[in-house]
Amino acid sequence: MKATIGEITAKLDAIYPHVWAADWDRVGSVCGRPGTAVTRVLFAVDCVPSTVAEAREVGAQLLVTHHPLLLRGVSTVAPTTYKGEIVHSLIESGIGLYVAHTNADVAAPGVSDALAGRLGLSDLRPLEPTEEGRGIGRVGRLPEPTTLSAFASVVAQALPATAAGIRVAGDPGRRVSMVAVSGGAGDGYLSQARDCGADVYVTADLRHHVAGEYIEEPGPALIDAAHWATERPWLDLVAAQVRHAFDVDTVVSDRNTDPWTLHVASSDGQQLHS
């Protein structure tokens, strides 16, 4: 069926209910008249100038993102401000904006299911379950055991490339069979990764002291990837959900919105192992 902004956002609200979002989060419709006809939707991790420009370039009437544009309170959307310029650009271009953030993180399927699928995991269960059977992160099994070093290469190939690449903490020869994942910043779930029996935990934004203390204790190895890269796989999932419900074109953005743009290898450029 043909669709309007209001119909598509209502469907997304049903798939990713607002009540699933964290109290601090800001999800749902941000701008766009509900009656506006939609022929094309762009899906991106971030609502930034480059993805707004991409929405214009591909002729989208709706931009669906994972990260909120207006997460924290603002007193103005004047075009002289960063966020105000984005809001003006969206409205002046006739493009609506919709956000599914922590409500997409806990959905089943959701952000971590998409990440787990990219890594070939099966028999998935939540890393931090809720009473309703949803939850943050996923735990699953690889098709066959491998080493940490080999699995790190799988992760690097499966996720979109970023300047930072991935970082690994642990014995490169460690046997890996069970894997925990959490798309986005995941150091708040290190204890869950330890308790679930995983051999390795794949996430993003691991902090120096937290990771350093954690790796000294018995528990899984760590793979730290770029935040954007771990959440990019979800875009394919949500695009398919919209495409299944409505007769609209869907475009998934591969514009790298990771803030880091250059990686310079240490020492002679070889991998360093202790």
Outline the fold blueprint:
Elements lengths: L2 E2 H11 L12 E4 L5 E2 L1 E5 L4 H10 L3 E4 L16 H11 L3 E4 L2 H5 L4 H8 L3 E8 L5 E13 H11 L8 E3 L5 E11 L4 H6 L4 E5 L3 H8 L5 E5 L1 H19 L3 E4 L22
Parallel strand pairs: 4-5, 4-13, 5-6, 10-11, 11-12
Antiparallel strand pairs: 1-3, 2-6, 7-8, 8-10, 9-12
Keywords: Metal-binding
GO molecular function, one term: metal ion binding
Subunit structure: Homohexamer.
In short:
Helix 5 packs across helix 9. The model has no long low-confidence stretch (mean pLDDT 95). The chain has 9 helices and 13 strands.
Q: What are the main properties of this structure?
A:
274 residues; alpha/beta; Udp-n-acetylmuramoylalanyl-d-glutamate--2,6- Diaminopimelate Ligase, Chain: A, domain 1; 2 domains; 6-stranded mixed beta sheet; 5-stranded mixed beta sheet; 13 strands; GTP cyclohydrolase 1 type 2 homolog; DUF34/NIF3_sf; metal-binding; metal ion binding; DUF34/NIF3
Give an overview in words.
By secondary structure, this protein is of the alpha/beta class. It folds into 2 domains: 3-101, NIF3 (NGG1p interacting factor 3)-like (Udp-n-acetylmuramoylalanyl-d-glutamate--2,6- Diaminopimelate Ligase, Chain: A, domain 1, 3-Layer(aba) Sandwich); 108-230, Udp-n-acetylmuramoylalanyl-d-glutamate--2,6- Diaminopimelate Ligase, Chain: A, domain 1. The protein has 9 helices and 13 strands. A 6-stranded mixed beta sheet has the order 7-8-10-11-12-9. α3 (82-92) links the parallel β5 and β6 (96-99). α5 crosses α9. The longest helix is centred in the last third of the chain and has 19 residues, at 227-245. The protein is globular, with a radius of gyration of 19 Å. The mean pLDDT is 95.
